[in-house]
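[SOLVED] Need 3D model of a two-part complex

Original post:
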Amino acid sequence: MNRTEIASLGEFGLIRHLTDRLEIKNDSTLFGVGDDAAVLNYPHRQILVATDLLLEGVHFDLTYVPLKHLGYKSAIVNFSDIYAMNGLPKQITVSLGISKRFSVEDLDEFYSGLKLACDIYGVDIVGGDTSASLTGLTVSITCIGEVDKEKAVYRNGAKDTDLICVSGDLGAAYMGLQLLEREKKVFSEDKQFAPDFSGKEYLLERQLKPEARKDIIELLEQAGIVPTAMIDISDGLSSELLHISKESNTGCRIYEERIPIDFQTASMAEQFNMNVYTVALNGGEDYELLFTVPLSAHEQVESIEGIHVIGHITRPELGNYLIGRDGGEVQLKAQGWGHS
Amino acid sequence: MNRTEIASLGEFGLIRHLTDRLEIKNDSTLFGVGDDAAVLNYPHRQILVATDLLLEGVHFDLTYVPLKHLGYKSAIVNFSDIYAMNGLPKQITVSLGISKRFSVEDLDEFYSGLKLACDIYGVDIVGGDTSASLTGLTVSITCIGEVDKEKAVYRNGAKDTDLICVSGDLGAAYMGLQLLEREKKVFSEDKQFAPDFSGKEYLLERQLKPEARKDIIELLEQAGIVPTAMIDISDGLSSELLHISKESNTGCRIYEERIPIDFQTASMAEQFNMNVYTVALNGGEDYELLFTVPLSAHEQVESIEGIHVIGHITRPELGNYLIGRDGGEVQLKAQGWGHS
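Solution:
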């Protein structure tokens, strides 16, 4: 039997490969594999289901991630998928695989973060499951949300001339991760070392306690704007933009100078001798919303606090490009540094 | 900080501990943690959500479980949870954590089993996610199902004098596991050894390729019977019966001679010098349905092929007992041998 290495397909290729030609059997299944969440058609309401699996050593490092924060973030990343469909998360189920290393108090910590996120975002925990694990901690969360009929926003609706918008700022979570990794390394060499994070709090917060952009969904709703395409930024702006372009059969142009970057992110990137735009494009774990709106919504969307127009959609043959401050064009590539 | 070992609470105690006093915030959440599936109230239909996490080395051993069978079984165990609510599974999402040991072909095998189960049971795969894993295979599946309003069956509805019914026969999956474990041991000592499973096919099938009892749900529906309480047998008859008794605030009496056992199970138990009733009570992984019906449904339920009346519900102060062939009474204990 041939052996094809998974790496040769890549993450998305693997999913495509595995889920190719799935036959839809129920009328209630409107949209299955291929977006942030599945859309199910139960009368009068569309239901959204998103799921995430987080593995210790791959998605998180308990050396510097407190369990409470991990619980919070585990919930948030799922909520973010539901918001990215223009829906509202309503329930989650939580399965944990736990090795003997963990105590009940540890899990209490995890759950306290989970519950805090659920309280803040108005979500119910409707299923809990725990199981022994031979190695480390496994967290699997499924989130169910709802969206008004006709209002679910997919990745495939972007049109030529649409504006490309992004919420908040980018790259901070990635710089927070770099900072934590550096301090961990120093600490492992000098146990007396006490890290000083002053002036870098925002980076840590973005990495350890991210938020999902419920507020943006609400503001768009109030403004009567339904994006033509939307996705949340978990793997980096570049990778997510290419998803939209590919699924919508378009190209895109974004402008370096318009990419929103926080001062702390820029300052930290300089310290690390990194190009801050590369960080913003490929860092990942931002959990901001990336979406497109018709050109006609320009003024309206520009007037909403926290939303930045960073470029526009083009015809597919024009490709996907970043326009530098000097006018130079660089082709966008999906080279997210984030874990999958 | 105090350290409470998880073992001191036990699996169900831990869940109770973690999910105690969760506040329900949405009208759409009718029932959360504490049954086989969560029930959500979306207009005109109740939606069921069940989830399972399967970890290599804990829930399955790839030494003797082919990946196709693992895929099939991973789906089935989730469907079984939905049937146990008297509902029909409609969609699943699947998350896999995969170590470098696995190839694309391995995952194809896994998915072929998964798809086969979905084809047979009429279920759509609506979400797929894969992620790197440092160790072994992690499978997390969430199943969404639907049930007519007023027809969801919980664990807590059993009443004094209700009949206790079970589908199929018990203990075969556990004996299949013992058989496989024995052959694995022999094989590890003698690589030339070729196991002979003739006459034991049923045991292997029950362990490696279990089915969920959709047929029983349909037969009950046709007969117009709505069970008062229902659960699927994953951890063993004894453990599941105690769930029903506890949640319904009742006791129960079941009769040894009425417990359905296949010939191969009995014969294998004898070879292993095990008490076959102990196997049937505590073996687990049967994925049969255990349910209660009013005494008035006696004749009707007895006439349905594949359903056995094994005892009846009592007042709680009478406890939970197995009545032996000799009339002796043994208190039921939850001592499932199965993994959690």
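Edit: Chain B touches chain A through 80 residues (CB under 8 Å).
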